[in-house]
Amino acid sequence: MKERGMAAEARASSSSNGPASSSAEEIRVTDRRRVGLNAEGGGQQIAPEAGAGETVSGQTPSQSSGQVEQLEERARAAEQKLGEVQSRFEQLRAQLQRETDETRVRLNRAADERARREKADFIAAVLPVADNLRRAIEAASGGSSFESLLEGVRGTANNLESALAAAGVEPVPAVGQPFDPELHEAVDTVPVEQERDNLVTAEYSRGYRIGERLLRPARVQVGRARPAMKMIADSEQ
């Protein structure tokens, strides 16, 4: 009896649901849909395929091509801008180099002109000395007195000193000054008292300097106190 009842329920269920092929939606082979698996139930789900004019990201090929063209256009504009900046830089550098060369030439020309002018001024100041020397020679040849000749030589020496001073040359102090190896050249020594030790006692040739530059040292005689006199002076102190 139990088996007979189960068979009857099976027939009833089969008659109520009908065949499976009639209830399910028929999918044709030519249908443009994809069949995938449902993430939850594992069943199949059907999604429409991308159209022929669409990409997977939703953009058409024409849109992607437009973006590429824009990027290429920006790259070309950047390269052009860089070229313009480089060209401007080269122009400025060439202009700076040209101005530097012109300034150097102008300064050198000015320095040479100043040197020539100073040389001419010095020669003009020395010319009266040559005139006085010529007059002294003529006076000595004509039988002039010794006093007149000496006076002419003194005037010539004074004129020469004035010309040197006008050129910025000044004599180095010597006689009566403490011996300075930076300014004086000791030719010989002479015994002197203790208080005159290491003093210049005579000048053989005058030294000259221009500003802080020594043209030549003065050739001098230096006093040296005797050792005995030093001992006496030390004992008295």
Task: Identify the overall geometry.
Answer: elongated
Secondary structure: number of strands: 8
Profile the largest sheet.
3 strands, antiparallel
Q: What are the secondary-structure elements, in order, as H or E? A: HHEEHHEEEEEEH
User: In percent, how helical is the residue content?
Assistant: 55-70%
Distance between the termini: 163 Å
Mean pLDDT: 76
Number of helical segments with 4 or more residues: 5
Share in β-strands: 15-25%
Order of strands, main sheet, comes to: 3-6-7
**Rg, Cα atoms, Å:** 59 Å
The unreliable regions are 14-24, 31-47, 52-56
Structural class by helix and strand composition: alpha+beta
Record keyword descriptors for this entry.
alpha+beta; 3-stranded antiparallel β-sheet; 237 residues
Kindly describe this structure.
With 237 residues, the protein is α+β, with helices and mostly antiparallel strands. The protein contains 5 helices and 8 strands. A 3-stranded antiparallel β-sheet has the order 3-6-7. Helix 3 runs antiparallel to helix 4. It is elongated, with a radius of gyration of 59 Å. The termini are far apart. About 14% of the residues have low confidence.
Please write out the topology.
Blueprint (H helix, E strand, L loop, with lengths): L1 H16 L2 H4 L9 E5 L6 E5 L12 H81 L4 H21 L2 E3 L12 E9 L7 E6 L2 E3 L2 E4 L1 E8 L1 H10 L1
Parallel strand pairs: 4-8
Antiparallel strand pairs: 1-2, 3-6, 5-8, 6-7
Helix pairs in contact: 3-4
Quick summary:
The protein is of the alpha+beta class and 237 residues long. The chain contains five helices and eight strands.
